[in-house]
Amino acid sequence: MTVTEFIRIGPAEPSALxxxxxVRMRDGVRLATDVYLPGGDDAPGDTILIRLPYxxxxxxxxxxxxxxxxxxxxxxxxxxxxxxxxxxxxxxxLLVNEADDGYDTIEWITRQRWSNGRVAMWGDSYYGFxxxxxxxxxxxxxxxxxxRVTGTQxxxxxxxxxxxxxxxxxxxxxxxxxxxxxxxxMDWTRRPYAAxxxxxxATVGARSISYDQWYPHVVRLRRFRQGSPFDGPAVPVLHTIxxxxxxxxxxxxxxxxxxKRPAWDQNHFLRxxxxxxxxxxxxxxxxxxxxxxxxxxxxxxxPRMLDPTLAFFEVFVxxxxxxxxxxxxxxxxxxxxxxxxxxxxxxxxxxxxxxAATPDGALTTGGAAEGMDAAADVTWTHDPDDPVPSSVENxxxxxxxxxxxxPLAERDDxxxxxxxxxxxxxxxxxPVRATATVHSDGPVMDVFVRLLDLAPDGTALRIARGxxxxxxxxxxxxxxxxxxxxxxxxxxxHALRVHVxxxxxxxxxxxxxxxxxxxxATETTPNTEHLTVGGPDGLRIRLSILEEE
Length: 549
Description:
Blueprint: E1 7-9, E2 19-24, E3 30-36, E4 45-52, H1 63-71, E5 76-81, H2 98-110, E6 115-124, H3 125-135, E7 142-148, H4 167-171, E8 181-183, H5 193-204, H6 209-214, E9 237-242, H7 248-259, H8 262-266, E10 268-273, H9 295-316, E11 329-331, E12 340-342, E13 350-357, E14 363-365, H10 367-371, E15 376-382, H11 398-401, E16 415-418, E17 426-440, E18 445-454, E19 460-470, E20 477-490, E21 495-501, E22 527-533, E23 540-546
Parallel strand pairs: 4-5, 4-6, 6-7, 7-9, 9-10, 10-11
Antiparallel strand pairs: 1-8, 2-3, 3-5, 11-12, 13-14, 13-23, 15-22, 16-21, 17-20, 17-22, 17-23, 18-19, 18-21
Helix pairs in contact: 1-9, 2-3
């Protein structure tokens, strides 16, 4: 498939379990809305609202199956195509209409004969963001939300020291080009990428208002008309994060904001699962790792996905039980079964450990790391025409593939540092940070750090990662890289490995080496990149270990 070839997917027919309504927003635009009533009963009851851009009746998000499961617990379910998408009217302008449209939809629900005036919201990714947007409007009927694998800054183009994700622009050209969804393939070996976009748009015969908002000049439209959701009254929230979700940094940024606000923090319940963005789990067996999951498999996985939300809504929507019945933090220690609970994140009983990279490719800790004072300047070449490849083709489904990243260390443009194998199981729990000193002979530089579990058989599973953009790389620059949070059991005999590189493509847009905008650059040039190893300014990895009582 090329930029002049694409797959176009239009709306599915509404579910036979639902009645389709067209709900009028304050400006007259009507949004296609499926109403599911348990047993067809229009007696007043609690409602779960799902607002999404992926087709309320389509196969991708299997909303009819989810609605059926919620109805089995007596909930009315309202599933709505957001403005401009599939069967809804209006322009497909991503992110900026969800606050007001969410408020208006909740208001409409409260006026229906089958509503008792209590509304909750559920959903992943963009339809998790739609919950934060609705919460920012302070509608009194919104009693609780359950956002999963999302963040309030979802979809923002890169700023400052942020590395640009390839999906940022492509999302506006696929799911948010217009009402239908378009799927096509970028040729990442052919620059400029922006020219390929123009070829695609010419083939389709229409522009994307969302893409034109982002490129070539970013227009940051206000997504929360009444301010950040965290500046308003708190709504009880069950906040689900995946250890391997590529959008997890957005979720953790929201957690940090919530922790600064006592009212929100008091009503915040955190759930951390060993899953990726598409809900594939490290606990899944081979028979479950299927890209196009059959209906019966989806049905079998719904309890894992939905039962925590139902237990949460039972307390905060229906008023059955108390907040003490819901753990403040429920989390899985990846590599083990079941969920653990704690009163806070990170849990009590963790201590920080520092690893230092050495010039001979080792990772040392303890006294050896503290006393290491021989520094070395390690160099490698970033070639924009041969960047370090991303781990998987679909970054949203990392655990579907579970790639072995050990072979990346064989590349000349990947630096690898490896610890000694641990003698007993070690539980890595809490934040992971890297500090380093870098510079380049090019004007700007991206630095990627991956933390891996190196097994005795030589295979390596990525367990944490982070990246930073250095805007003036010609001067030596001290950088701190956030690798996110960990909940992972490193088994006896396994070792930690760190990979450092200057690219991770195409998940992140590779720099051209010239300092130009990477999306529009035509010319490329290799850069020599420098990393200090050893000494007080050398590469350090700081992580925490949970010490069981």
